[in-house]
Each structure stands twice: as C-alpha cells, then as structure tokens.
Amino acid sequence: MECNQTEKLLPDYLQDALGADDSQAVAKHLHTCDACREEMELWRALAALPPQQPGPTLRRNFQTMLAAYQQGCAAGRQHSPSRLPTWPSWFRVFAPLAATLALLVIGFAVGRSRTNQDEIASLHRELASTRELVALSMLQQQSASDRLEGVSWSARVDTSVPRVKDALLRTLRLDSSVDVRLAALDALRAYTGQALVRNSIEESFRNQKSPLVQIALVDFMVEQHDRAAVEKLKSIRQIPDLNPAVRERVEWGITQLSRG
C-alpha cells in the first residue's frame, strides 16, 4: 500500500471502521513507514482534542497563501525556463505550517459527529492543495536543503497532480545540486507508470554533468526493463568525453537490457 492510500484510510483505521483486509494493509504500511506513523500520531492527538468549530482564520490564511503562490506562478512565467522565482522567507516558514493547520481543521471536522461529509471532503481537498503548494514552493527556493525538503513533500502529493510531476522533472534537469537532482530522480519513480515521464527522465541524461547522476540514470533505465532504452544508451556511449566509470556503466546497461 502506498502513502497516499494509507493517508485516505487513516481516519477510518483509527476508528476501527475498515474491513479486515484494508485494516491489515494499513497496519503493515504503518509498520514500515515513519512518515505515515507520524501522521497517525497526529490524528490520535487531534482525536483527543475537545470538539469545536474551526474559526474562519485558518481558511483565510490558507486562501492568502494560495493567492501568494498563484501570484508567484504568474511572475515565474515571465522568467526564462531555467530561472525560477524566489519566494519570500515568510512563505517558506508558513507553507509547511499551513499544511499542518489544514490537517488540524480536518481533525476537528472528523471529530464532530454532525459535520457534513461534503465539508470533510472539501477539507481533504484543501489539505491536498496545501501539500501541493508546499512541495512546489519549496522546490523553488535558493537553498538546496529547502529544495530537498520540497522533494520530500512531493511524495505526499497524489501522482495525478501534473504540476508537481513537471516541477520534479525540471528539478532533475536543471537543479544546481547533485543531491537534489538525485532526490528528484528517486521521487519520480512514483510516476514511471507514465511512458512520457519515463522518456523525459531518460532524455534528461543530456543535461547532466555529474557522473553520479549519469550512473543513476543508467540504473534507472535498466530498472525499467525498457528495451527501447538500448538505443539511447548506445547513443550515450558515443559521447567523446564521457566519464570512464559512466561509460562502463552504460556498457553494463546495454548488456542487461539486451538479454533475452
């Protein structure tokens, strides 16, 4: 079971409202996933809070942050593709906090027996939007550690969200930090069911100067068992100044993918 599936089932799991199979699957995932266990503890803490109606402040804060993000996107479109807008320092602090606040709102709503199910669904959508917002904003920061945090947040976003996927692909191609590019490649494995994403990842080899990232991309091609990648590897093999260790890995990749 994936993290996004577990997240949707946690409220029912904590209320013993799941079927035996789903309950067992969630328990198994929680045993191996630190992030989901932390979220479960947050849900439990929320359940212990006295029921109350969330005030309008959280929604206003969320809407303010969302508006700021949208303005940043509009400004970013005026930049060249290789230059991303810089976010103010307050936004970096407030964005992760807003995701926690959104979860608090949902926790309050779930704890109220008279809460409308449509409202709960709406709050879940707000939480998903906040996580997307945090991931996208952190990926655009100047600090490599902030961008690494953005990659981490991207794992909490549903893979159907195209903007996060596109941001990760851009990070893999253009980020100045080797560590961030490697982290982005690892995060993009969640999207490899999409042929266009696999192709974009493989094509990003041409943008890479780091032998570490190049070798990681060769390994990725082999992991995907994509026979079509053989021709790409043969083309890469022709690069005159290719690092010897990378060339050796490319030869290995060709051998692995050429096997019947």
How would you describe the overall organization of this protein?
The protein has three domains: 1-48, no CATH class; 55-173; 192-260, no CATH class. Helices cover 71% and strands 0% of the residues. The protein has helices at residues 3-14, 20-32, 34-47, 57-76, 89-111, 117-138, 144-154, 162-174, 178-188, 195-203, 211-223, 229-237, 244-258. It starts with a helix and ends with a helix. The protein contains 13 helices and no strands. The model is unreliable at 49-54 and 79-91 (pLDDT under 50). With 260 residues, it is mainly alpha-helical.
Question: Could you outline the blueprint of secondary structure elements for this entry?
Answer:
Layout: H1 3-14, H2 20-32, H3 34-47, H4 57-76, H5 89-111, H6 117-138, H7 144-154, H8 162-174, H9 178-188, H10 195-203, H11 211-223, H12 229-237, H13 244-258
Helix pairs in contact: 1-2, 1-3, 2-3, 4-5, 5-6, 6-7, 7-9, 8-9, 9-11, 11-13, 12-13
